[in-house]
Amino acid sequence: MFKKAKKDKDKQPKEEKKKERKEEEPRVQVSSAVEAEKVAPPTEPKLAPPPKTAEVAKEEEERKKREKEELDRKLKEEEEKRRREEEKQRELERARLEEQRKREKQEEKKAKKQRKKEEDRRAEEDEGAERELLNSIVVSPAEVKKDYHLFPREVCLAYEQLQSFSRQLNTPIPAPEIVFIGFQSQGKSSVFEAILGIPFTIIGYDGATRRPLYLNLMNSTETRITIKRDPITNVDHDVTVMPGTTELAKEIQQRNSVFSLEPIFINYESTDTLNITLIDTPGLISTREEGLKGSDLLPKANEIRTFVENMAKIPTRMIVCVEECKDWDSVEMTDWIKGIDPEHARTIFVYTKFHSYAQRFNSTRDINKYFAGTSPDVKTFFVSMFSSKTRSACLEMDKYQEKILQAL
């Protein structure tokens, strides 16, 4: 009992204290709110900015304009600076490329000079060996006269009789025509004159045949060569020369000194021939050949090509395509002639300079492999002619025919 009363006594003051604290708290809060109201100043309403006057607006506009102009000026200066820098870099690059081209050109010129020197040395050695080989083969004048005829005598006699019958019947026999075509410096003119055995064409480089040449072979009891008058070179009269002299080559050289597609006409009368026309055309210009890119005939390339195409398109003409021996994938005339004679029905292919190309063969297998590249249905011949230096020393017909027989 005593303990319980003590506990109640102790408990009572605690409850009274709590009650007192609860009564004091609202007073504190109220008093602090009142004090806050007394301390804080009254808030004033925010006022709108005063409207800008026209003068202020104008100044603001001018300021913005100046800022924009300044910015544009800086951008323009930066752009100009960048442009000058780029132009400077381009100038340096151009100078570097120009210097590189000059070095390459000098090196190319030096290499070309070295190649030319080497080619001249080898050509001189080949010509010496060629002369030695040809001179070792003895051919008598009688053999030349006997063997070098365009046609056998019996054929010519039969043709004379046929011509006589045609005159009696007033029915002319048209003369067959053979046109020789090929690219420049491939040996076309050399083949042309080797068939005839008469040194009359201009042998050389850079488009030696500058005009078409019509050679009319005529069966006759007389033997003579007539070069018809030529308005291109102001030769207003016919010139008659005898075979076996150098006058023929000189006359043709005079007429061939200028480029023209007007033909040179020559009549060759002989008892040892039939009526037939041989046509030598200017050489086609190939852009593959580096050495021909400086040719003065290069601007005439399309004109020459069109002319040769028209000459070969006549269906009654036989075509002799002349090209030097080379790898078959580099040969051009086979594709070129397909547009004119796709079946090769009237085309003969003659490949020159075979002796030079044959030097790369190491065995008979290489030779057989090369010959296998020809078509069995196309008439194909491989020939080798002596050098132009040897040819230039054979202006007389007898001496030229002798060299031809020696080469065979």
Short structural description:
With 408 residues, the protein is of the alpha/beta class.
If you had to describe this structure to a student in words, what would you say it looks like?
The protein is α/β, with parallel strands linked by helices and 408 residues long. The protein contains twelve helices and nine strands. Strands 4-3-5-2-6-1-7-8-9 form a nine-stranded mixed beta sheet, sandwiched between helices. α8 links the parallel β7 and β8 (347-352). 19% of the residues are buried.
Question: What would the keywords be for this entry?
Answer:
12% strand; elongated; 12 helices; single chain; disordered N terminus; 408 residues; nine-stranded mixed beta sheet; alpha/beta
Residue-averaged pLDDT, rounded?
A: 78
Strand tally, please? 9
* Overall SS class: alpha/beta
- Output the radius of gyration: 52 Å
Helix percent band: 40-55%
Please give the largest β-sheet.
Answer: 9 strands, mixed
Unreliable residue runs: 1-7, 24-34, 290-294
Q: How much of the residues is beta strand, in percent? A: 5-15%
How is the secondary structure organized here?
Blueprint: H1 2-39, H2 54-135, H3 141-147, H4 153-168, E1 177-182, H5 188-196, E2 213-219, E3 224-227, E4 239-241, H6 247-255, E5 264-270, E6 276-280, H7 301-313, E7 317-324, H8 333-338, E8 347-352, H9 354-357, H10 364-371, E9 379-382, H11 388-392, H12 397-407
Parallel strand pairs: 1-6, 1-7, 2-5, 7-8, 8-9
Antiparallel strand pairs: 2-6, 3-4, 3-5
